[in-house]
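Run log, item B.
One chain of 196 residues. Sequence copied directly from the ordering sheet:
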Amino acid sequence: AFVGGKKSVTLKAIAVNPKTGLCSKVMTAKYTFEPLPSYISFSNWSSQAVLMQGESLTIKATVSPSYAANKKLKWVVESNVGASGVTVSSKGVVKVTKNATPGFYYVIAVSEANPEVSAEFAIKVEATKKNIVSIKSEKTSYSIQRYYGVAVEGVTVETNDGSTVDLTDLDWKSSNNKIVTPIRMDGRVYLVGLAT
């Protein structure tokens, strides 16, 4: 039942004699409503987040209506990467282990009183560090004019978990910055000539 969005209402009634116009005493009755939960929402700014390995996040859930009989929630974690590494407590605290498999995980809040009501929070877990096995380059020499840049090409990075590594994520260094220096720009790595 839902009357004015309140948990309880008080009804008042009187009986009127149509012939005499006399009224009875006012009769009152108070009714309290305790329905099952019908909706779950998250008060976080978004229903998704990106976490690095080793990080944590508290998901705040709100059960509607506010006067539901039982607002307790059951929290579970599901994953499409078929691995563990992400857990959630009974209070919605999500913890990502340092060895969690990168990928998407789904934290689901389910109403204990009404299991048909649930809400899903998506979490993308990213690796803190890429485990690089090897770096190979098809090109071993570049011809660069002074104050001009040449884009680095033909470089492949192999990781032990098969994840992709952008060249801009690597730490590029030159053995002599007075001759050539690497820079990151527009998602690419350039070698800029400085020597006369």
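Observations after the first pass:
- The chain has a mean pLDDT of 85.
- The two ends are 84 Å apart (CA to CA).
Flagged for discussion on Thursday.
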